[in-house]
TrEMBL record:
Signal peptide positions on this chain: 1-25
Keyword Signal in record: yes
Name this protein carries in UniProt: Lipase family protein
Domain of life of the organism encoding this protein: Bacteria
Keyword Signal in record: yes
Keywords: Signal
Entry-linked SUPFAM superfamilies: alpha/beta-Hydrolases (SSF53474)
Length: 442
């Protein structure tokens, strides 16, 4: 009975958070403590070097069981300017013996989408983190799916210590160095650089995954990167400007706030055109996780934030150059890529994903691309996960990938061969997780 009450309480909290998260909620987060502080002289360490480690207790939606061994690793990485920096990844070991042939490693990128470092997954995934990180907490379902395969999982804080949403390259460096740190962390029992590696992320997590795939050939060529799964990866940051006046208008403000932080020239242009309300909204982003950022700015028109239209703002040469620098598709990954996106996605226009895939294909990347006719942005993350998981499993199993590109428009990716069975089995496993069952192959 007590567990049922806890489940009901958490579900009510989650539903409430999707509508409104009170300003005081951020105080409930464990927050950024001294563990995150870079030690003196870290700059001389190689990218991926572990600088600190500690065990952590994870929880589903802050309060429900998530019975898997987990640690946080502080490690050296690189920012978008090429300078040394640090960030944290949460590494998780599934229950049970390693799969035959050794344990693969999946790096799963969540849609952090916040300018507040305390909203990173290393905070939101921890027990007692409160409702502020509800969007990140919901993605632990897919971490659970990966652990059920027997894979070790790395969940990096890919926005880094300054939580920059729109920074180019930096998310990719953070992901790849998190993989290096995980491979060197003895309790995971991995085979070092011989470890088969996969990448997976959706929306903002798909953007970070795309950056990792693009920079990997030159930044981390030693990794055995078997496959990359990207869902609705937000390849063109300028596309969020279409969200003004919609339920998702807060996402546009969040991206503008980050661009203002990353690119000084953009900051000067924006400062010249922000309304008093716009300045307040942009400044508030530094203390808001994505749920509250969306809820507090829902349906606000562009005129609430700017004295010009979004079209005029993005036409400014400094802003246009920054958006081009921050978008995906500038280079082609060498690892096989699986992309899935909704034809009628209300946040990420399918045309922007089509353009990115076309660039990858022309660059020689083997791409499997599924354009889903049924799902919207908030539903494809669920319905598309099973086919992505099956595709990743095939890469870890050594199944060959045809060269060239395979693009198909489908009714739903959950109707692809084997996807429905995986959907049922993995989500049945999640119910066991919420009852405290150790997470691993079942």
């Amino acid at each position: 009975m007590r567990l049922r009450l806890r489940v009901l309480s958490v579900l009510l909290t989650v539903c409430g958070a999707l509508v409104s998260v009170p300003a005081a909620a951020s105080a409930e987060l464990p927050g950024i403590d001294d563990f995150y502080r870079a030690p003196a002289g870290f700059e001389s360490a190689k990218p991926g070097t572990i600088l600190g480690e500690r065990p952590v207790r994870l929880a589903s939606y802050s309060e429900l069981p998530f019975n898997a061994q987990a640690w946080q690793l502080l490690y050296r990485t690189t920012d978008f300017t090429g300078a040394p920096t640090t960030t944290v990844t949460t590494v998780i070991l599934p229950a049970g013996a390693p799969p035959t042939g050794g344990r693969p490693l999946l790096s799963y990128q969540v849609a952090h989408d916040s300018s507040d470092p305390a909203c990173g997954p290393s905070v939101a995934m921890r027990a007692g983190s409160g409702p502020e990180g509800v969007f990140t907490q919901s993605e632990m379902t897919f971490v659970d799916h990966a652990l059920q395969q027997g894979w070790a999982v790395s969940v990096p804080d890919h926005e880094g210590p300054s939580a920059r949403i729109a920074a180019p390259r930096e998310p990719g460096y953070a992901v790849l160095d998190g993989i290096r740190a995980a491979q060197a962390f003895a309790p995971l029992g991995l085979a070092g650089t011989r470890t088969p590696v996969g990448l997976w992320g959706y929306s903002g997590g798909g953007l970070a995954t795309g950056w990792a795939a693009q920079v990997q050939p030159t930044y981390a060529p030693e990794l055995d990167l078997r496959g990359v799964a990207m869902g609705s990866p937000a390849p063109d940051p300028a596309a969020v400007t279409q969200l003004g006046g919609t339920a998702w208008s807060g996402l546009a403000v969040a991206v503008l706030a980050s661009l203002r932080q990353v690119y000084p020239d953009v900051g000067r242009v924006m400062d010249a055109h922000l309304t008093p309300g716009g300045r307040a909204a942009v400044d508030a982003m530094s203390g808001q996780c994505v749920a509250r950022a969306v809820a507090s700015n829902a349906f606000r028109p562009t005129s609430d934030f700017l004295t010009v239209s979004y079209a005029q703002l993005v036409a400014d040469p400094a802003v246009a150059a920054a958006l081009a620098d921050a978008g995906l598709g500038g280079s082609a990954p060498t690892a096989p890529v699986y992309v899935y996106s909704g034809v009628h996605d209300e946040i990420i226009p399918i045309s922007t994903v089509d353009t990115m895939v076309d660039r990858y294909c022309r660059g020689g990347t083997p791409v499997t691309y599924r354009r889903d006719e049924t799902s919207l942005h908030a539903t494809l993350i669920v319905t598309g996960a099973s086919d992505a998981l099956n595709w990743l499993r095939a890469r870890f199993d050594g199944a060959p990938v045809p060269s060239g590109c395979d693009t198909r428009t489908v009714t739903s990716t959950v109707m692809e061969p084997g996807a429905a069975n995986t959907y049922v089995s993995t989500n049945s496993g999640v119910l066991g997780t919420m009852l405290g069952v150790p997470i691993g192959p079942r």
